[in-house]
Specification:
The complex is a heterodimer of chains A (130) and B (66).
Chain A: H1 6-32, H2 37-64, H3 67-96, H4 111-128
Chain B: E1 2-3, H1 5-11, H2 16-23, H3 27-34, H4 42-52, H5 56-59, E2 60-61
Antiparallel strand pairs in B: 1-2
The chains are: A mainly alpha (130), B mainly alpha (66).
Amino acid sequence: MKQPAPRAGSQVLTASVTLVVAVVLAYAALETLTLSQPLRVAIALLPWVAFAWFIAAEVRLVRGLDELQQRIQLQALAVAYPTSILLVFGLGLLERAGVVVSGFRDLRDVWPLTIMAYFIGLALARRRYQ
Amino acid sequence: MKNQLRVLRAERSWSQAELAERLGVSRQTVNAIEQEKYDPSLPLAFKLARLFGKPIEQMFEPESAN
């Protein structure tokens, strides 16, 4: 049986911070700078590298968890994933219906809510097994 | 599922953290099993049984016979 990897958590944190910074910088560069099309595509693809790193770190973290911790992660994702889908379709449809949802412009505004849903799911699952 | 884990651990004067380390799981998992909030997988249950030198059926008992 595997021991929980102590460094895996900090790697996920570092990767997620890098991902957020890469996404924010890429959006800022694409919206403000006048660049050639190939460069725009390159900048748009740059966060994908950070995202791949984030996924790899997350997989390493989950593989290092024990069976109960993996179950807790699964339950957290079981809250976060449907919530994300609900938000994307629900808010998107409201927008098409002409309803302006405060603070929601497009899909960029959904991911903080996804993260929040994940942590709510995580807290609920952890509480269940305390 | 009912289990005797807390009693068996106390008999050996092991802390939850110590037992967790021997099993290769987190202290949270040991605590959840002791409180009967989580039923361990078969491999973990066998590992517990081997660690305490008891048959698995003496360590774990179904909630009801039905």
